[in-house]
Amino acid sequence: MAGRQRVAALAAIAVLASGLTACGGDGTPATPSGSPSATSAPPTSATPTGPAKPTDRSPHGVLLSAQLAMQTARRAKVSYRLGADAGSGPLFWAPKTALQIKRSTPAEAEQLIVVDTVGYQGGDAATAARHDGKHWERFSVPPDSDGHKEVPYAGLIDLLNPVEALAAATADGVDATFVGEEKYEDSTVEHYRVTTTAEKYAAAQTQLTQARRDGLRAALAPGGSLSLTVDLWLNDKDQLVRLQRTGSGDSGGTDDSVLYSDFAGPLLSAQAPAETDTVDTGVRTVSPLAR
């Protein structure tokens, strides 16, 4: 788009020169490395002829730039619809995982909070009625076979995490196309599309445990869908503002939508409820999002 503001060239060069490396365990996906060449050509649907990097303006290169932009942002407000579940609130994906979601559809718990490896649910009258006036249930989830403490609601977080979506969109063997410029709220955004599979989407998340990759794959293919279309809309800073995943199978399908705003917002927070308003329910298994 005319006058498009790009990721600062000096910053991109400095990051690339220092060598981008992967972080593990806290939901921070591996950062892509790039080639020494770059181009300022406008987006096209052509497949890049060589390894792309954030300064390459091919569709693949733009999506790599978006991945870097979202890794840098570390947090945003999300508004989502995942199957029958919908809600909104702040999500932190680095350096630690946290979220505070208020659901807009009927569910067992009106609100969900995660602070690192501790989860809370409730915040409503029904929860208070079950626990002598205390509105929140506090819990953790069992560690994996290696003793790693898992993040509560990991299945939901993996469907919302924008860096995971961009990791899947830029994985080896996945072709990206530039759909076009579109109006979004009060601005113009660029629309990109990739076609992949639930298996490839999950396999791209190399920073996740195998159990989380398995859960993500199952959540993305509830009807046994063989293909998955991922649409991504980027603002003039290459930040992901809208994500849509669609796919169909013999017994169901995927139709997810996530909106992102307030990137790196200083007022975004996810806070644990007061201890006096909380009951400890111990260790429990929190399944991935049900379709």
Task: Please render the helix and strand layout as text.
Elements: H1 9-18, H2 59-73, E1 75-82, E2 85-92, E3 98-103, E4 111-115, E5 118-122, H3 125-130, E6 136-140, H4 154-160, H5 162-169, E7 176-184, E8 187-196, H6 198-203, H7 210-220, E9 228-234, E10 240-249, E11 252-261, E12 278-283
Parallel strand pairs: 6-12
Antiparallel strand pairs: 1-2, 1-11, 2-3, 3-4, 4-5, 5-6, 7-8, 8-9, 9-10, 10-11
Helix pairs in contact: 2-5, 4-7
Kindly list the characteristics that best describe this protein:
single chain; alpha+beta; 2 domains; disordered N terminus
Question: In summary, what is this structure?
Answer:
The protein has 291 residues and is an alpha+beta fold. The protein is 22% helix and 31% strand. It has a 12-stranded mixed sheet with strand order 7-8-9-10-11-1-2-3-4-5-6-12.
